[in-house]
Amino acid sequence: MQPVHIPPRADLPTLAAAAADCQGCDLAQLPGTRTVFGVGPAHSWLALVGEQPGDIEDRRGVPFVGPAGKLLDRALGEVGLDRAEVYTTNAVKHFRYRTGNGPRRIHQTPDLRHVTACRPWLSAELNLVRPAIVVILGATAGMSLLGPSFRVTKMRGRLLPGPAGSGAQLLATLHPSAVLRADPARRDEVYAGFVNDLRIAVAARP
Ligand code: URA
């Protein structure tokens, strides 16, 4: 492992290129993975922060392009947003997985050490994009931006102050995978709650 080096005065493409070589935590050593950096406009009023790329995102090199991303797109559409207008990234930029008996790569939640190692990249992205609102999608993103005591159930659905000096507000909600994993009998209700949280972010648009 090596200390994370954020190039000074870099723009997003330069940051992304530097992050591709990051050796800041053990996830860089996992076979067959790559850094999946954020995507979207250089400046946007809204940034979405997820957990980490999944298997499909790792293969394609783009955040939220698998099933969770499809659900996210649907929910964004319901609140009048198009993904192309928002900056989308993750708290951790590598796919953490384990293997079972077969070739399938099984998602593993990143640990605090992965979140902490990757945090300078997230801060650098947000400092450049300068969103007015940052939507925290789930516990890992919350841990990165609000600390290890973050709890989605306690903090979701209300605007919270962002990092000092950023001028941003934070809005925490569920991770879209939590909607996909919800008991089918409750899934519509869980999805409606997710959309409702996104509406609060839209209502706060400057
Ligand atoms: N889940 C995430 O948190 N991020 C992605 O990019 C995909 C799935």
Explain this structure to me?
With 206 residues, the protein is of the alpha/beta class. The chain has a single domain (44-203), classed as Uracil-DNA Glycosylase, subunit E (3-Layer(aba) Sandwich). 38% of the residues lie in helices and 14% in strands. It is built from eight helices and seven strands; from the N terminus they run H-E-H-H-E-E-E-H-E-H-H-E-E-H-H. The strands form two sheets. Strands 2-1-5-7-6 form a five-stranded mixed β-sheet, sandwiched between helices. Helix 4 packs across helix 5. The protein starts with 11 loop residues before the first helix and ends with a helix. InterPro entries: UDG_Type-4/5, Ura-DNA_glyco_family4, Uracil-DNA_glycosylase-like, Uracil-DNA_glycosylase-like_sf. One of its GO terms (molecular function) is 4 iron, 4 sulfur cluster binding. Keywords: 4Fe-4S, DNA damage, DNA repair, Hydrolase, Iron, Iron-sulfur, Metal-binding.
| CATH top level assignment | Alpha Beta
Using the alpha-carbon principal axes, give the shape. Answer: globular
Which homologous superfamily in CATH is the superfamily?
A: Uracil-DNA glycosylase-like domain
Q: Radius of gyration from the CA trace?
A: 16 Å
Please bin the fraction of helical residues.
Answer: 25-40%
Q: Report how far apart the termini are.
A: 41 Å
List the helices and strands in order: HEHHEEEHEHHEEHH
SS element count, helices = 8
Family: Belongs to the uracil-DNA glycosylase (UDG) superfamily. Type 4 (UDGa) family.
Keywords: 4Fe-4S, DNA damage, DNA repair, Hydrolase, Iron, Iron-sulfur, Metal-binding
Protein name: Type-4 uracil-DNA glycosylase
InterPro entries: UDG_Type-4/5, Ura-DNA_glyco_family4, Uracil-DNA_glycosylase-like, Uracil-DNA_glycosylase-like_sf
